[in-house]
UniProtKB/TrEMBL annotation:
The chain crosses the membrane at residues 6-28, 54-74, 86-111, 123-145. It comes from Pseudomonas delhiensis. This is Integral membrane protein. InterPro entries: DUF474. Keywords: Membrane, Transmembrane, Transmembrane helix.
Length: 147
């Protein structure tokens, strides 16, 4: 697959993933205070079902296209990650992305094993939110920061 196609797939998947995390943390979390419990549980159940169907594909596209771009263009930079600002920021972005993937896998395990609690869910969401903010800033910084 060509680099431009991988880039578009990566950007679209990133928009979907970051948008979902943004919605869950900054919108849905605040709506909870204003919606009756029964209605909120119905909405959360429906959202959860939809997200469990869609997000694995979004994650697969996001990481698959990212790895494809890495292989086609950026892999040699990782041999010496401190040699350039771009390589350093890319390395940091990859570490955060790996952590997000671990969060996602942990959340999936907790959901399937019955160990997911409201507190754990919120902690995972806030952590992933902080990670994706860092990833977005690093992604932009890779092309504009130098030292």
């Amino acid at each position: 697959m060509s680099y431009p196609i991988l880039l578009v797939l990566h950007l679209l998947a990133a928009i979907a993933f970051v948008g979902t995390v943004f919605f869950e943390v900054l919108i849905l979390e605040r709506v909870r205070r204003h919606v009756p419990g029964d209605a909120l549980r119905t909405v959360e159940r429906a959202l959860g079902q939809r997200l469990r169907r869609v997000m694995p594909w979004v994650i697969l596209t996001l990481f698959g296209s990212g790895l494809g771009m890495l292989k086609l263009r950026y892999l040699p930079l990782l041999a010496h990650p401190l040699d350039s600002p771009f390589a350093t920021l890319l390395s940091l972005k990859l570490l955060l992305a790996a952590s997000v993937l671990c969060h996602f896998l942990c959340a999936m395990y907790l959901m399937h094993s019955g160990g997911m609690t409201g507190r754990r869910s919120r902690a995972i969401h806030y952590s992933v939110f902080a990670h994706v903010l860092g990833i977005v800033l690093l992604a932009k910084g890779m092309f504009y920061l130098s030292w």
